[in-house]
Amino acid sequence: MPPQTLFTVIIFNLMILFLPVAAFLLFKWPRVWHLLLALYLGLLVGLTDLRTDDPQLPALLLITFGLFLGFAQPTAAWRWALVLGLWIPFLGLIARAAGVTNAQFSDVLFSLVALVPALIGAYAGVLVRRFTSRAGDQS
Asked: Count of CB atoms within 10 A of residue 22's CB?
């Protein structure tokens, strides 16, 4: 089995295993649902980034997921951006170490730029939340 296929199978099964673990954690601590959702979505964005050469789709996903998480919990917007955006360089390092990709280490470090769209999305969600709460106060 080629390393790329094996890596994809492992990450996919990790995402499947995450679901019952998340269900158990939500049963025990219902307040961690934002964190669990951010971890899962970040893993999904990281996997998407590994499977495509075009940075537009992962950037769009980071902005979108960041917007919803920033809207849902605006006091921790920077944390959601970190949890979402750090999966791209993290999975890039793992893929490089596993021999799946031949990207240079500098390319993996450059992928930290993924934090920018995640921050933009998270703080856009905060702004939308503030505007909707002000609009609700005026009516």
From this structure: 17
